Amino acid sequence: MMEQIYASTKVVSFSSGVQPGGFCYLASWDAFFLLNFTRVDKVFRDGTQVNIGNPVSYWSLGNRQGGRHFWFPYTTSPLDCYAADEITGQPSLAEVLNPAWKIPFGTWRAGDYLDEVAGLFLHNNYNGLIKIFRLADGLQTGQIQVPGGPSYDSLAYVSPGKAMAFHKTSGKVALVDYLIPALVWQSRVEPFTAAAFDCRHNLVVVLGADGKLRIYLITPVPAVLSAPAFSPEGNPYWLSGKKVRTQLTGDMGEPCPDYWIHWQLLGTPPRGSLWKDKSKTDAQGVAENFYFGPTDTTGEETVKVQVIV
Amino acid sequence: MALYPISVKAPCLTYHLWDGVAPFIHYNDYLVTPPRVYDESLNSLGHFFYDPGTDKLVGFATFSIYHWPGWAVYRYEWDPVTGAFLGRSPASIFAMAWANHAGPGSYGAIYTTWRSCYAISEVKSSTLTHASGMWEINPWTWNPQRIFNFAVVNRENKIIAGVGSWYLETWDISGTPFLKGQLRLPQPLGYLAYEDRKHCWAITKNGLIAKANYQIPRWEMLSSVQDPSPDAVNYLCAFDTKRKRLAVFRQRPDAEDGACQCQLEFYYPLYRVAGLTEPVPVSRLRTGDLVRFVAHLYGDTGEGVASYLLHGELLEPATGQLLTPMSGAELCGGATFRYRAPGPGSDTLKISAVITDGEGA
After folding, report:
1. Could you identify which of A77, B4, B10, B234 might form a hypothetical disulfide with B270, taking C-beta atoms 3.0 to 4.6 angstroms apart as the criterion?
2. Which residues of B touch A (CB under 8 A)?
């Protein structure tokens, strides 16, 4: 579960059938574009909502590399994807993002993702399957299967090569690296109506059914701190230090970076010694230390790790 | 960039009071049915533009009237500084029935699109009629063919910017006309106004105002009229090229007694602040950590308003420390404040901005 840091007191009004992918973070605005049936709005994080025009009938949205969005007319297939104007948020007909390959029926959904820099189009297929197509010729170059993953509703830009998939009814999110391609980790937030990724501050921002915006850190709430283990496995040899590791993860196994882990030897007095009494978890949620055994004997020693959440 | 309102002239039209005498033939009896007391009512303002030749705002309007023949067409003139009514004179029905939407363009001339044909023509400001020898072009002969309801004529650079329905199109007419680009309008267009050889202004029927560089083309700003009224029938705009400001005609339904409620509004293309969002945390809330808060200064359509200093303050009793007591608004209007809490607790962060008079509200 990701850590929620904010819920707006203002309520955003939206149509009951708003598309989950119709809510995009625009980096140049540092705010969100909301597509409704009869209006398009600019929405700030605190829920301030300003109408900036009407939508194009029978057009829908997807997210785009760099914290932008694109439009496509979904009644005509195969699809042309159009860049969006950064002042009005409306489609810019002069800029077709997929000139070489029109996206055929069956390989697109509202909320799909386009990276014209890497030349890739990501399509949310079904049951956690994300297909990756090359914009140059439509060749499927890879796919990412999220284990136990739902049919994601939208994908949003996180950083170069990385995108986040959102599923509204379960609140599941998945960070994928679409250049490798591979799943990085999964987590979840409260179920929502629409979601966007604030790539400037690394935040998941969701629009709840109650109209409130909720902001989550990309880091999950810590749930499990693994028992410390030697790495590589084996016993320490007297005074030579041996690396000992622990991993802090969320309830779906996602890593929790930037937490201070406190290390302690429980023997009275301790038989060996630790290099540090505190260390910080890295991007994988792993904190490391070194244990130095006693000089004179063999035996057992208990290492205790703690974390302040 | 948001628009800063200068003044409002309301109403900008005054109807003729009914003298109580019913002629033998009369029309539109609702006009004089109590509580209504005027024998005329504005139907629509078909043309609205700044005439650089006379330095006046000009409008052509159709009226429903009580007397024969039941309708009338008038040419209106207003003072471009105050919006004061300067006079009206009867005009030909063809100024409304044939000419579509007129406005200024290159060489200080007035140009119009037509309901009666597909051409864009230079016309006389006084009558909106085209005379032989005047400039004209026919977009129906272009490839693909075009019919424009609104057009901006730039003969110096040989550019036409026109709107048929949802797109502002730029055509290069230096040789065989070709489409340079399109900009989608955020809402159905109310009027299009020429500013100069690069820029034009569009106002939508719901009161959004957009400025475009039509030569590229690209949108350069999106804003709105001040306090858009839900009962507004239409909005039209004209750009006063002498004073570099925008005039907006807001057409509203008549009052209960039949009085005109239309108004003229004047705007400078300057910053106008509409609001400041609440500061929202964008990083982890932990004791000892630097916590970042972001607030946005925004204009009428949510456009970021830059170049202002935002001031942060922790309200008493404060336990934490605000490390950024002031922060400049970026282009998107956002400003970041940094805060650190020494221990568990709660603090209230107040953000404010001083907007000096003449720069915003």
Report:
1. B4
2. 166-167, 181-188, 204, 208, 210, 218-222, 275, 277-278, 280-285, 292, 294, 296, 298, 300-302, 304, 330-334
